[in-house]
Amino acid sequence: MKIEEGWKMYIDIKKLKEKGFSHSKIAKRLGISRPTVIKYVNMTPDEYDKELSSMGTRTKKPEKHHDDILAWLRQYPDMTAAQVFDWLEEKYTELCFNESTLRSYVRFLREKYDIPKEPVMRQYEALEDPPMGKQMQVDFGEKRVFNAEGKEIILYVMCFVLSHSRYKYCQWQARHFNTADIIRIHEDAFEYYGGCPEEAVYDQDHLILVSENHGDLIFTKEFAAYLQKRRFKVHMCRRADPESKGRIEKVVDFVKDNFASNRTFLNIDRWNENCIKWLQRRGNGKMHSTTRKIPAQVFIEEKKYLMPVTDKIIRKPSAISITYQIRKDNTVPIQGNRYTVPRGTYKGPNTYVGVSKIENTYLIIYELESGKEIARHEIPQTKGNLVVNNDHKRDKSSKIVELIKTTASKFSDTEKATLFLEEIRAQKPRYTRDQIHLIETTFKIADKESLDNALDYCIKNKLFSAVDFRDAVNHYNRNTKNTTNIEQTQIKGITSVSSEKMAIKAQVRDISEYTDIMNNRAGGR
To answer: CB neighbours (10 Å) of residue 388?
Structure first.
């Protein structure tokens, strides 16, 4: 390593560490090993200077094999450090250095003797597309994404593409696939396509294939039983030969990089629903870069050549749609009708539920996370109906409602106060009662005018908190007779107070201070 390059690396390590990068991320960013980062990150400049100086005079452990390594690299420029290490072990049995040390030495020799790594280019031949209905290709992938709480999770995807039309289907799940998952998703894909092709191309996946014995494919028990029922042919790619199924390789990358990247994960049902919509818009709805045709349009013709699939082998409830969004009025719009759910089910604009249909007679609405049924309705024969379950109208939190009603009546503008209290309830559902009780304590220290002014101020500045309301009341109340703070009114046993003490007033901030605080809060979000 040149001295200039060494110092640049040291400075870069220090800068990245100061910015909060982890050792692993620094190593990845600079293209060096993690132990190297750990070694240098705690060195002082003087210590590193001595280390750098010693590098020029220190003998490298693989140096005694210099001639062998150099001869191999010159004869085989594409040779990897791992292969060099293997040949040295084969020739000398025991080595006094590890593979990581040799890797650095091989890099040093390449730079010194100008021996760039020149991989042997494999030659490929363009293949014509299979006939319509002949073949589909199948593969798997995984993608790291972030959920609504900012936590990184891994999602797994199974992708299909019809080789002629390039018409695609994908399905995700939040855990590793098993053979039962693969069979179920095959059935979903055939339902999506409206038929089955003659042949499917796979990697040598252990969930499908046990082994390949000189061309004889030995499938897993479950998948072999599935093939006896569906009767499509299977073609297994050779190991380490992704080019033989290049169409699906591109689809997997396309789905991961264009659909999944930078998308926030809410739940797996919603994710799959959005993926299908994305395929309709982009993957199947836009012109393919190779064929220069739109897959959805070509598929209309290819669908005629697929083998018919009458019944799904694995039966499950027929879902109208994977998820539906709940409206503010606690109704769910489904295929031209509105169906009620229990009051309080709506928790904000991102409230979703799952919906399934039983024999075109009943709708079942359920929680996505738990699968718990929350509503069941009979499906009407006509459209435009509001389908109501009278039990859903019943307010199951009547005590809170009554408390809000009573507290709001103490303000001049009851309607405005109700809106304010309901917003507190929506934002702090677990602490609604505590919030309202704190607001009620302010009635003991303030007149109605101060309460109304504080209410207007909080609504105007979107301060839906009992603490902020109390502080605003204290401000508007400072010039009135009721300036004694709430703690003073709660003291018992005092029969008289000196005039000097009565003249003392609690320190009250000016309203401008609260405005500045709120502006700072907003700016920091």
So the answer is: 13
What would the 3-class secondary structure string for 375-412 be? Answer: EEEECCCCCCCEECCHHHHCCCCHHHHHHHHHHHCCCC
Return phi, psi of residue 326, to 5°.
-85, 140
- What fold characterizes domain 135-305? Nucleotidyltransferase; domain 5 (3.30.420)
pTM of the model: 0.43
- Give pLDDT tens digits for 486-505: 444 433 333 333 334 334 44
Nearest to 140 by CA among 81, 88, 87, 207: 207
Find out whether 143 and 254 touch, Cβ atoms under 8 Å.
Answer: no
| Tens of pLDDT, residues 239-272 | 545 555 667 888 999 999 889 988 889 888 889 9
- Torsion-angle region of 336 (φ positive above 0: left; ψ -120 to 50: alpha; else: beta): left
Phi, psi for residue 109 in degrees, rounded to 5: -65, -40
Domain boundary assignment for the chain: 3-113, 135-305, 318-393, 398-524
Among the listed residues 487, 467, 479, the one whose alpha carbon sits nearest the alpha carbon of residue 510: 479
